[in-house]
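## retry 2 of 3
previous attempt timed out at serialization; input unchanged, resubmitting
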Amino acid sequence: MKQLRDWVYNFWVLLFLMVIGIQCLAKDEAKLTKTITKGYKVSVGWKLELHNKYGDMIIDTWSKDSMAIAITITAMGKNDDAAERLMQRTDIQFNSVTNGVVVFTQLDKSDGWLKDFWNELSGYSQTLFSKDQLTIDYHVYIPEYLDLELYNKYGDVYVAERLATTRLDISNGNLKTEDLTGEVDLNLRFCEADISSILHGNISLKSSELNLEAANNLTLQSNSSTIYLRSVNKLRLVSRTDKISISEVGHMEGRSSFSKIRLKNIEQLLDLETNYGTLTLERVDDDFSEVLVRGKSTDMDLTFEYMAYFNTIIVAKEGKFDLPENHGLKQVYTDGTEKFIRSTGYLGVHKSAPGEVNINAQSGKVRVNFAPFDAQSYHEKN
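## retry succeeded, writing output
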């Protein structure tokens, strides 16, 4: 028993000494920093293109007809010589082109660097040029009218308010932007994005999280992402294995597979093909125009405002749909198998301009109902 206690005691002492040793080694690392600055006169129609990795990029705007670029490179090694060799292998290229500037971060300036660099980092990391060894941070000032094209890997990006075209390609980092009123094209992978507003734009997501406050006209293509949209006027959607929540949308069309979609308020039109997922409409305005849904193995739950009135065509499997009480719809089997029922007619409070609801559900449950009367909402509208 005593031998076991001694063994356990020695094990923990050894583990403690190893941790202290690792911390001491980390404190002995050498660190070198270098800052590169450039400035250019610009005018309307100019474009700035940036290519970077392993660092943060801050894009601020100002009222001057010029741009300023400051790049800070930080290299860390086990001693001064190792950090200096790492710094020497890092190069920033500034290329002037017609009506623009292109800036590249280059990490393999010397021949045969890979083998030498791997040896330098032995015992520190199994990932070359990870952010723990090298960072290249950009801080840029440009006028709002300057077109921007930016590529960044393994770093965060901030973009201030802009009037011109903004194209961002970001992976393995965070994105924060203010209002973007020019054309927008975002390609985000393994990214968390927080965007104030977009006037017109395209967003492509993969394994990312998007928070967007407002958009006027948006095309969104997404895969394995989580999406929160507060207000969108017009949305075109292609989705696969996503979780989507939209507070308010005017006009939405698209298709989805294996996605969970929740729409808190539909104002005018929904035209959606959805397979192997779920669709929840918490509220459809009483003056909507169309709700068209084609689903396969998708559970649908649709709630219409109390005063809504619409022409209805619902095709669903017998026993798999739930309609309002005393709905009065005409119901017939769609074929001789007596598996699917077609329900047609009008639902809601009669008025002169009914909306259109067309639901075709091949398997999956369908529920259509009306929200309770909301006096406050009714008086606000009338």
